[in-house]
Every structure is written in C-alpha cells, then in structure tokens.
Amino acid sequence: xxxxxxxxxxxxxxxxxxxxxxxxxxxxxxxxxxxxxxxxxxxxxxxxxxxxxxxxxxxxxxxxxxxxxxxxxxxxxxxxxxxxxxxxxxxxxxxxxxxxxxxxxxxxxxxxxxxxxxxxxxxxxxxxxxxxxxxxxxxxxxxxxxxxxxxxxxxxxxxxxxxxxxxxxxxxxxxxxxxxxxxxxxxxxxxxxxxxxxxxxxxxxxxxxxxxxxxxxxxxxxxxxxxxxxxxxxxxxxxxxxxxxxxxxxxxxxxxxxxxxxxxxxxxxxxxxxxxxxxxxxxxxxxxxxxxxxxxxxxxxxxxxxxxxxxxxxxx
Length: 316
Hints:
Blueprint: E1 2-7, E2 10-11, E3 15-16, H1 29-33, E4 36-38, E5 41-45, E6 51-54, H2 56-69, H3 77-90, E7 102-111, E8 123-133, E9 143-148, H4 172-180, E10 185-189, E11 197-200, E12 204-209, E13 212-216, H5 226-237, E14 241-245, E15 257-262, E16 266-275, E17 278-281, H6 289-302, E18 312-315
Parallel strand pairs: 9-10, 9-16, 13-14
Antiparallel strand pairs: 1-2, 1-3, 1-8, 4-7, 5-6, 5-7, 6-18, 7-8, 10-11, 12-13, 12-15, 15-16, 16-17
Helix pairs in contact: 2-3
Keywords: Aminotransferase, Transferase
Protein name: Branched-chain-amino-acid aminotransferase 2
Organism: Citrus sinensis (Sweet orange)
C-alpha cells in the first residue's frame, strides 16, 4: 500500500509499505465528521504481459474536485498517478491474467488529523491499496433493479456529485431491503420531485430508445463517472445520438435497453426494473447495444482494440 501525509497544504514524499492497519486518532476528522473521499480504478494485464491503467488523470481530477467540496487539500495529478503506478507495480503478481479480471485500485484521501470541533482536519493522509477482482456482478447476467422512492442517495446542494465516503453508508439500508426482495440493486429517483432517474447505488444508468442513448445529466447530485464519460464518447463514435438530460422514470416504459456503467461493473445490462409493483423488461444478450459498448470499452482497456484516444497508460 502507498501512504502520503499532508499538513499545511503540503504533501510530503509518499512511501510504499506492506498492506496493514493504519493508526488514527479517535478525534480524527474522518472518524468524527466523515471528511474523506475515495476513488476506484483498475490495472489490466495485456496479452503481452504489460500492465496498463485506464484514464488515471480523470480519477485524479475528480479527487481534486471532491477535495475542494470537502475542504481538503489534494495531491497533484502527477502525485496521484505516481502513487497509483507504484501501488500497481508493487502488487503486479496479483493482477489476473488477461480476460480473467483486473487489479482494483482504491485511492483514499482522509482527514486523519485530530479535530474535536466541527472544522477541517489539520492533517490529511492519502492512501492507495489494491485487490484482484473478477466481475462485480456475476458474469454478464442482466441486473434486476428496484426503483427506490422512499430513500434518496443525494439532494441538491449536497455532496452527491463527488465521491465522498459519506455518500455510501446511507444507501446500505435500501440495498439490503432490495436484495432481500430478490433484486440486484437499487435505482434512485431525484429527491425533489421523485420522478427523474438519478443513478444506481454505485454506478450510472443509461437508457436506449432507437438510436438515442440518454443518461441523467450530472447536475450536482449524480457522480460524474469516468466509465460513463468514456461510454458517452464511444457511443457517439458508434453513431448513436447521446443525450445528457433529466429522464422521467416513466420513460423506462418505452426503453429498448437499459444498462449501468462504472469502474466496478464496467457496462452491465439491465434485464428488468420494478417500479411501484410493475416489472418492466428490456432487451439483453449478445446482440444488444450494451454488449457492443462493453466489448469496445474492455477491448481498449485491455489492449485488444487500439487506443486511439490516449486513454490507457502503461505502467513501467
């Protein structure tokens, strides 16, 4: 794992150490007030054995945006990418063979300094650790989502648009309830009108109707996913008209396909969505648009398709 400390807005030189426990003051900002952010990214092993990252600069920029919102200093883009590369290299033996998975990398930025009153912490710690992973959802089996209209993931003016650690524990109750009813995950609606789609617990959502692919606009309550951003560009390159806009939940009734995107899930097809007792089913399978987009994205990430966009970064 990689550790880098910051005080007085200055990040000292980081270092690698064996993965293990960290020491925190009981009055640290992260433990008492949830002052923390995390990122999620992957390292892939290509057929020639070379390790690559996918758009790590975008994760670094998103961390900086989140840090500004949470009153935290943040590493520079170069510091961030260097830390991620060092962590991936130190764990290279854990990167699965091509096609068998990836090395999931988790950067964390937390208020580690003690602060009893409600204020920004006096010291921060940037950590990076990793774990080999397979598919987040088993295989490419279609997801079975439940539309949640009681609990909300984010509210206007809140921190839903950044990857704050405090955004995730509140959705556990809704996820647990949905899974106990046989669903894969939860699809949230906007908290003001309870009528527009927002996102799934840990991934963005897209709907397809004809040649138009739509996804909720990132207007402060929705996380600007890097996979989301990449799929928007790939879909446009494939000739689809892509719209970022408010999407009423009723539009699900007319959709041909629905799919989710995220670092963990990549591109996951949605087989059905249940809303107020009504189950709506969508096209999935080998001939689906979501499978085409998935294959293109994974092909670029793993080196099977030439990267003409400069998205992949080799780890030397």
